[in-house]
Amino acid sequence: MVLAEIETVLLDEARVQVGVAELARRISEDYQGRDLLLVGVLKGAVVFMADLSRALTVPHEVDFIATSSYGSATETSGVVRLLKDLDREIEGRHVVLVEDIVDSGLTLDYLLATLRPRRPASLEVCALLQKPDELRVEVPVRYKAFDIPSVFVVGYGLDYAERYRNLPYVGTLRREVYERSGGG
Ligand code: 5GP
């Protein structure tokens, strides 16, 4: 069942899960015998991170970091700040940053610049989605499941005004939803 507010489903639940399983397979292969730490970017990556973590066959720990970007509900402003830092040091550890979606790339660029000086043994990025046409800074995304067009999407962790994160698929919202809430 698709929610009435959803206009189109870009990736249904089955496709999302196939994408996550493939990423987990690659990461499990690459990090065998290494001290792996998954760092989820709050809040959007929570749903993805939970599935990815459970699909990994290598031991690993998880931590979270939170950023905020000033701007409207559906557009990045380009200014990123740290809202919550990691709980633990990452020096000498193999870190994989887990992001829901790479849009302009500015959030990841900021996070990589923040974490690199802490001297992790390695630092890679895993993103479920990317909008390749929106990229403003070059970011190295080692693990990515899907490229999507430049449209605002919700579901599978992604929100509009904090809603729709719980949907098991990724889709676009009907125009009325934005008009009703006055956002976007
Ligand atoms: P970037 O810094 O790469 O421009 O944006 C990354 C962040 O913007 C994502 O982590 C996500 O929070 C938000 N974002 C970018 N595109 C979308 C989208 O289509 N839908 C939602 N809900 N958030 C998005």
> What portion of residues is helical?
10-25%
Task: Please give the alpha-carbon distance between the first and last residues.
Answer: 26 Å
Low-pLDDT sequence parts: none
Instruction: Tell me the β content.
Output: 25-35%
Small molecules in complex = guanosine-5'-monophosphate
Task: Explain what you see.
The protein is globular. It is α/β, with parallel strands linked by helices. It has a single domain, classed as Rossmann fold (3-Layer(aba) Sandwich). The mean pLDDT is 94. The protein has 4 helices and 8 strands; from the N terminus they run βαβαβββαβββα. It has helices spanning 13-30, 46-55, 106-115, 175-181; strands at 6-11, 36-42, 60-69, 80-84, 94-102, 122-130, 143-147, 170-173. The protein binds guanosine-5'-monophosphate. Residues 44, 76, 99-107, 152-154, 158-160 line the site of guanosine-5'-monophosphate.
Which descriptors apply to this entry?
184 residues, alpha/beta, Rossmann fold, 8 strands, 24% helix, globular, binds guanosine-5'-monophosphate
Task: Summarize the SSE layout with pairings.
Blueprint: E1 6-11, H1 13-30, E2 36-42, H2 46-55, E3 60-69, E4 80-84, E5 94-102, H3 106-115, E6 122-130, E7 143-147, E8 170-173, H4 175-181
Parallel strand pairs: 2-3, 2-5, 5-6, 6-7
Antiparallel strand pairs: 1-8, 3-4
Helix pairs in contact: 1-2
The protein binds guanosine-5'-monophosphate.
Residues 44, 76, 99-107, 152-154, 158-160 line the site of guanosine-5'-monophosphate.
State the gist of this model:
The protein has 184 residues and is α/β, with parallel strands linked by helices. It contains 4 helices and 8 strands, in the order E-H-E-H-E-E-E-H-E-E-E-H.
